[in-house]
Amino acid sequence: MTLGIDIGFINTVLTHAAAVHGVNVKVEQVDLARVALKRLGLIGKSRQRDRRPTADELNRLLEHFDNQPRGWIPMGRIVRFAIASAMRQEEICRIRASEVDSKRYVVLVRDRKDPREKEGNDQLVPLLDLTGFDALELIREQRKHWRRGDIIFPYNSRSVGAAFPRASFVVGSTRRDERERGDRHGKSSLASEQAAWLHADVAV
Predict the structure, then answer these.
(1) pLDDT tens digits along 111-130
(2) Cα–chain center distance at 71
(3) Nearest 5 degrees, angle CA 69-CA 71-CA 74?
């Protein structure tokens, strides 16, 4: 899939160069290259990620993150929170302390990703302790280390996403296409099954 994205970027750049700057370039060659790559099976739809990191792989990743210098992104805490809450990295990096309801064990996630609703899809997400990591306690721990502002994890979600495959390569744990989301999706089913006791407007 990465190669397909690269081809798309090249097409965009060449189209812009031809249309805006008058560069004499034939964009059609990129389209032909895309067709050829598809026929050769080198680009196509992403394969379904159905493999979860093993306990050993996850432990090695968390140990790697926990040994990183202080003052950097607390990836160990973020990965634990992602597993506990089944949230995406973009959602984790924008949840607010003022929107955490510790009595109901939920947090409001605004504009949650949903193919049917592009905007205004605000959901209450459970903060449970069903996967070996306690989501609410991780928020409290994070607030002890970072109390400035309302954002709980005030980090660039792209930097968070980039840190995981780099660490996976360093510790030799999971393949690049089996990153954080693979385990997040794996844990979400468990969280869903055991969250029925929550209020009806709480979404998993």
Answers:
(1) 887 655 556 688 999 998 88
(2) 21
(3) 80
Joined tokens for residue 138: 């991780």
Please count the helices (runs of H) and the strands (runs of E) in the chain.
8, 3
Token digits for 156? 């660039």
Q: Is 150 helix (H, G, I), strand (E, B) or coil?
A: coil
Dist. CA 169–CA 171, nearest whole Å:
6
Q: Give the chain's residues under pLDDT 70.
A: 1-3, 42, 44-53, 70-71, 114-120, 172-204
What's residue 192's pLDDT? 45
202 in Cβ contact with 86 (< 8 Å): no
Residue 166: both structure tokens together = 């780099």
* CA 147 – CA 149 distance, rounded (Å): 6
If you search the block for the tokens 């994890």, which residue do you land on?
153
